[in-house]
Design brief:
66% of the residues lie in helices and 4% in strands. The chain has 102 residues and is mainly α. It has one domain (3-96). Strands 1-2 form a two-stranded antiparallel ribbon. Helix 1 runs parallel beside helix 3. It is elongated.
C-alpha cells in the first residue's frame, strides 16, 4: 500500500467527523478562521520539522511508495497526519461542547 493510499484512508474518519460537525452545528466565522489558522500552522511546522529530521537522517521513506511531491524534504503524504488532527480536534470540540442558547 502506498503512503498516499494510507493517508487517504486515514483522512476519511476525520473528514467525515468534520463534515458532520459543520452540518450539525453551523459554526461561525471565528471558528472557521481559528480552524484554518490551526491547520496552516500544523502543516508548516510539520513540513519544517520533518525536513530537519529527514536531513538529519532520523528516518527514511520508501521512495517507490511516494507520490514524489515534496515540501522541503518532507513528502506530501506526511502532511496527512497534521491535517487529520486539524480537522478532527476542532470538529470534536464543536460536537462535544454544549450549544449556546440564542
Amino acid at each position: 500500500m502506498s503512503y498516499a493510499a494510507l493517508a487517504g484512508l486515514f483522512l476519511l474518519v476525520p473528514a467525515a467527523v468534520f463534515v458532520l460537525a459543520v452540518v450539525r452545528r453551523r459554526p461561525g466565522p471565528r471558528w472557521w478562521w481559528s480552524t484554518a489558522v490551526t491547520i496552516a500552522v500544523l502543516l508548516v511546522l510539520t513540513a519544517v520539522f520533518d525536513t530537519v529530521m529527514i536531513a538529519a537522517d532520523l528516518f527514511r521513506f520508501a521512495e517507490g511508495d511516494l507520490l514524489g511531491i515534496r515540501i522541503g524534504l518532507a513528502p506530501l503524504e506526511d502532511l496527512a497526519w497534521p491535517l487529520a488532527a486539524g480537522l478532527l480536534l476542532p470538529a470534536l470540540w464543536l460536537l462535544l461542547t454544549p450549544q449556546e442558547e440564542k
